[in-house]
């Protein structure tokens, strides 16, 4: 049997419901209108925002990095970007806590995934840095969905190239300033040591939040301090409360350009079971979202959300938490830009 393949278009793509029913605000193209197209229909971009090739310009781009060859324990964060996008379908356009509509104030787009080599960490890091640098030439702010935490290093290289050394607010159960694993320098437990060694960090403005669990030795903490980090541990976060954590971060970073890195394992496993190296005794999602809302006051340049591993997730608990983290970060960016 011969199958004839026609070059005639079978469908006018400009008439697709996602293209027709978008919420627009001034010059900005927003989400697919959920009153016209059900939330569960159509392809899952982040928050059902337009793809980068559908609009002429963007203030912020969501970029996926499906890479997890740097993990030391349970793998699976390579499926994080698609899981977070799928879990972000219910995000509505208005943020009442910050009184902002982030996708109206800013043109936010989904920039798809970086095609990373799963067999070569060196090649993957090079590809991630190249992709981030080329996006940053067109779009001033990036929100990256990982992927394991290895990806923070090439992202910080790209941001430091654009801004100079940056302050980092790092949410994580783990310090991620260890030196090597099995002789390997580039792993998900080492990105912030490499970044500090490479001069990518403003050592007077970096802070970890949510650190907990057993370490290898007390020198883990003293070496970490030498690399430029203050620590708000999870037990300290508990006694400080959201307002106290916010103050500690604001005091540390001031008006420096800030990169925010959210390892989803900063949340308690009850709030984020879908991750590779869970530690008991973490933050609640309510606490994390509350802290992120205060970032409207910071000079945000970029962020990542990493270590979401859907094969250990249940009922999208972790994916939904990550999607809301992304929404609060974009809202804080929009609120900050509106204020300035
Ligand atoms: Mn971690
Ligand atoms: Mn981490």
SSE topology sketch:
Elements: H1 17-20, E1 22-25, E2 28-32, E3 60-65, H2 80-86, H3 102-105, E4 108-113, H4 121-138, E5 141-146, H5 152-163, E6 167-171, H6 191-197, E7 206-211, H7 219-226, E8 229-233, H8 234-253, E9 257-263, H9 285-293, E10 299-306, H10 317-339
Parallel strand pairs: 3-4, 3-5, 5-10, 6-7, 6-9, 7-8, 9-10
Antiparallel strand pairs: 1-2
Helix pairs in contact: 2-10, 4-5, 5-6, 8-9, 9-10
The structure holds manganese (II) ion (MN) (2 copies).
One manganese (II) ion binds at residues 172-174, 263, 265, 277, 307.
Structure commentary:
Helix content is 33%, strand content 17%. With 340 residues, the protein is an alpha/beta fold. An eight-stranded parallel β-sheet has the order 4-3-5-10-9-6-7-8, with helices on both faces. The protein has a two-stranded antiparallel sheet with strand order 1-2. Helix 7 links the parallel strand 7 and strand 8. The structure holds manganese (II) ion (2 copies). The site of one manganese (II) ion has 7 residues, from loops.
How many strands? 10
Query: How much helix, percentage-wise, in residues?
Result: 25-40%
Strand order of the main beta sheet, please?
Answer: 4-3-5-10-9-6-7-8
Task: Tell me the span between the first and last alpha carbons.
Answer: 66 Å
Second CATH tier, the architecture: 3-Layer(aba) Sandwich
Q: Helix-strand pattern, N to C?
A: HEEEHHEHEHEHEHEHEHEH
């Amino acid at each position: 049997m011969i199958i004839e393949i026609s070059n005639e278009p079978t469908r006018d793509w400009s008439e697709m419901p996602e293209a027709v029913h978008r919420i627009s605000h001034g010059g900005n193209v927003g989400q697919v209108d959920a009153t016209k197209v059900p939330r569960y229909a159509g392809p899952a971009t982040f928050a059902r925002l337009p793809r980068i090739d559908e609009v002429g310009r963007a203030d912020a781009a969501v970029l996926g990095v499906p890479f997890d060859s740097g993990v030391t324990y349970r793998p699976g964060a390579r499926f994080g970007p698609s899981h977070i996008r799928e879990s972000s379908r219910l995000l509505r356009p208005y943020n009442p806590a910050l009184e902002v509509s982030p996708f109206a104030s800013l043109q936010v787009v989904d920039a798809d995934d970086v095609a990373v080599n799963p067999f070569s960490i060196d090649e993957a890091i090079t590809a991630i840095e190249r992709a981030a640098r080329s996006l940053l030439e067109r779009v001033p702010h990036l929100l990256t969905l990982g992927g394991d935490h290895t990806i923070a290093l090439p992202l910080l290289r790209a941001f430091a190239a654009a801004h100079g050394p940056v302050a980092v607010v790092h949410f994580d159960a783990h310090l991620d300033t260890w030196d090597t694993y099995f002789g390997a320098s580039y792993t998900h437990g080492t990105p912030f040591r490499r970044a500090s060694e490479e001069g990518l960090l403003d050592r007077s403005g970096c802070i970890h939040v949510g650190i907990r669990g057993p370490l290898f030795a007390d020198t883990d903490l003293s070496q970490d301090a030498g690399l430029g980090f203050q620590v708000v541990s999870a037990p300290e976060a508990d006694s400080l409360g959201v307002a106290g954590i916010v103050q500690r971060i604001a005091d540390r970073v001031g008006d420096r350009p800030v990169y925010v890195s959210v390892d989803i394992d900063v949340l308690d496993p009850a709030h984020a079971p879908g991750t590779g190296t869970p530690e008991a005794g973490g933050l609640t999602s309510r606490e994390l979202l509350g802290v992120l809302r205060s970032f409207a006051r910071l000079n945000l340049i970029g962020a990542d959300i990493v270590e979401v591993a859907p094969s250990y997730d249940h009922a999208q608990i972790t994916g939904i938490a990550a999607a809301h983290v992304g929404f609060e970060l974009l809202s804080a960016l929009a609120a900050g830009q509106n204020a300035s």
